[in-house]
């Protein structure tokens, strides 16, 4: 198991390095940085001055390593647009997005797995159909619309929960439900398919032949094997929510990472874009690593690879 | 000898898109305590369906009916789901055809060996493991202590089948149903596993219903044989009677398909039964075997034969009026 974790870690690190190179190149592919920083009304001399001041005259490899060494120290430079360092911006936004993502994934998992299991056990009954309907609605309904509906019902009419902002944990409930409902259908259907496949397998027949209780057959013997692809999917979905929750963040006026990325992209704020891309990528890699480790804990056959 | 299992007129129907598949069409079986009954037949004759019906492991959509299905005095048909679960694993257990996929890949062998007995007999983990180690050793698994913490993928197919056998014996059942337990194994391993099942069966006095398509296997281990064709038993009797005096044309055909060392000349033509098994969807009029039978008469197409006990060797029954007539004449 330790060997497995170590190997996966090596893979994760090499991917992270590749991503850092791509993220670094992103900045340089966007045109001459010195000109961009100096602004449209600067002279050639000023541009040269900036080029030297920012180290942009040095060879690109050297630039990469100096950028990387500050990046690992979490120093991404200053934002062009906001009056802050990039790190300040991110440390302000990231916790909001992380809270939202984790809550949404929690809600999605909490609904998707039991519902998927139930749909599989009750295959072709009205329960199965209902689960399918819930999933299809979740997949088909635009998330902003569902978010607005939630606001109208629970914030405007019932006054149970706040409509926007991020000052208390109450503020996260509606956006997490909206985001979670978006992530839930795929997990639910994967759980259902996985359960159906596993429940038809020979070792489930063996478990039944031992006279085990239905609970033991379904939850001990079947679910553990059926949930393996769902873990990988959950990791990807959480990664996606970290970078892609922009719609939900805008509707609920949560100032998260998605909003920051949007603002930075629309204002050519490259240091911020670069840092956001890198951080989201690193989270993705970390999540994939965690999913791999969880799966190896669930299925011993995966540990050998 | 007391009777462990008695089944009368067992029927299994499976609804399919093309109509009802009548997989088992009225089977009578009885198994004495400590006896080895072999059910023989080719693929699709309903022998696996019979074993699943006995264990109560058929899919929900399958309809099982019988005039009688008694296990040691317990009426299996009227037993509640919960009580049936209490019998299954504790008093009757099963060994399956596919050792490679019959064990859960995610749990250790120890866990899978012990969970049944811990549930049924309330044993502690230590006591259960003690028994598991003892049975693994009896089943010829080397380093039994070490196996408890191993996973199925770390074992070969032959070893996994030995583990399955040990697992079936955990609760000292009265009846084990073995559904082609050697079919998926190498020939050398097959012989070992057969010998093992026979030895353990005699040692523990367990009754075994052994399902196979291989008459060679039957000759080696069976006390009694039931030959199945198209969802029915066509001939049943003591192993010696069946092999020395095969009376149903199907049994005769099966036996003539086996090369006998010393008798069958190398390179000589080996018999085969022409044709294939009829479709089991809907009703069958007349004898199901008549299209492949050398002795078929006009009557075979219209009169559905019944199982007849025909001569002195007790309990030798055959489902073929033509054979019964000729046998009576011979006597």
General description of the model:
The complex is a heterodimer of chains A (305) and B (331). With 305 residues, chain A is mainly alpha-helical. Chain A has a domain at 93-270: MetI-like fold. Chain A has 15 helices and no strands. Chain A has helices spanning 2-29, 33-38, 44-53, 60-72, 86-121, 126-140, 143-157, 170-199, 202-209, 214-226, 228-244, 246-251, 257-266, 270-298, 301-304. Chain A is flat and about 85 Å long. Chain A starts with a helix and ends with a helix. Chain B is α/β, with parallel strands linked by helices and 331 residues long. Chain B has a domain at 3-91 and 216-330: Rossmann fold, CATH 3.40.50.300. Helix content of chain B is 34%, strand content 22%. Chain B is built from 12 helices and 13 strands. In chain B, strands 7-8-9-3-10-11-13-12 form an 8-stranded mixed sheet, with helices on both faces. Chain B is globular, with a radius of gyration of 21 Å. The A-B interface holds A 201-203, 205-213, 216, 220-221, 224-225, 298-301 and B 55, 57, 85-90, 93-94, 96, 98, 101-107, 112, 115-116, 119-120, 151, 153, 164, 167.
List keywords for this structure.
heterodimer, A: 305 residues, mainly alpha, MetI-like fold, flat, B: 331 residues, alpha/beta, Rossmann fold, 5-stranded antiparallel sheet, 12 helices, 34% helix, EC 7.4.2.9 (chain B)
Helix content of chain A: over 70%
* CATH H level, superfamily name of the domain at 3-91 and 216-330 in chain B: P-loop containing nucleotide triphosphate hydrolases
List the total number of helices of chain A.
15
Q: CA-to-CA gap between the ends of chain B?
A: 30 Å
CATH topology of the domain at 3-91 and 216-330 in chain B: Rossmann fold
Pfam families (chain B): ABC_tran, oligo_HPY
Keywords (chain B): ATP-binding, Cell membrane, Membrane, Nucleotide-binding, Transport
Membrane topology (chain B): Peripheral membrane protein
Subcellular location (chain B): Cell inner membrane
